Amino acid sequence: QFVMALIFPSLLLITGCKSDTKSAEPTPTVVAPTSSTPTFASSAPTVIVQNNGLKLAGQTLTFGSSPQAESRVALDKILGDPKIGKNTCAEGGLAYEYANYSDLAVVFENGKLTGWNLRSGHFNTPSGVHLGTTRDELKTIYKDVTIDDQSTVGPAWHSGGIGGVLTNNVVSFMYAGTTCIIT
After folding, report:
1. N or C end of the chain, less CB within 10 A?
2. CB under 8 Å to 110, separation ≥6 — which residues?
3. pTM score, two decimals?
């Protein structure tokens, strides 16, 4: 199954996508929760990752309608200056721009916000899923979650427009919207 999705340059090489940026990206950091009760990651920046965009303090950025310039101004204010780049996904030739805010990358197509992905950091979904959520917690929070243990990128999960990868039964990568990943 092929899903169009943006992944950070370190994973783009695995999936056949090319990146204009030349700096190496660090590998994902996984922090396992200390209890079996789903918990929210600590939230230094006020950004909630959603299946249709991002919710910031007092503002919602929506896939397909939030202009790139407006999105960048709002995110820069909270997360600082990003690394900007362009990618082309080998499967299907999707060309897009991205802003990589260290922990959070956002994707733009035709001047509009179209996706996000996480490899580290303290960001939550509205339901509390974050990097570090265990497989069992994920199943408790998202009753309809599907997990493909045969995915080429490792156990891949999806629920309600948000997806990700599990490493050692812990959420280690998350995305929504436009991405470039082969599952």
Report:
1. N
2. none
3. 0.74
Rounded to whole angstroms, the Cα distance separating 134 from 148 reads: 15
> pLDDT tens digits, residue range 148-162?
999 988 899 999 999
CA–CA dist 131, 122 (Å, integer): 8
Please provide the distance, in angstroms rounded to a whole number, between the alpha carbons at the two ends of the chain: 6
* Cα-based torsion angle of the residue sequence 99, 49, 114, 97 in order, rounded to the nearest 10 degrees: 10
- Report residue 141: phi and psi, to 5°: -75, -45
Q: What is the mean pLDDT of the chain?
A: 79
More confident residue, 95 or 25: 95
Tens of pLDDT, residues 68-113: 999 999 999 999 999 999 988 776 677 889 999 989 999 999 999 9
Strands across the sheet containing 47-50: 47-50, 53-56, 59-62
Nearest alpha carbon to residue 153 among 179, 130, 125, 128? 179
Does residue 104 contact residue 112 with C-beta atoms inside 8 Å?
no
Angle subtended at Cα 100 by Cα 99 and Cα 103, rounded to the nearest 5 degrees: 145
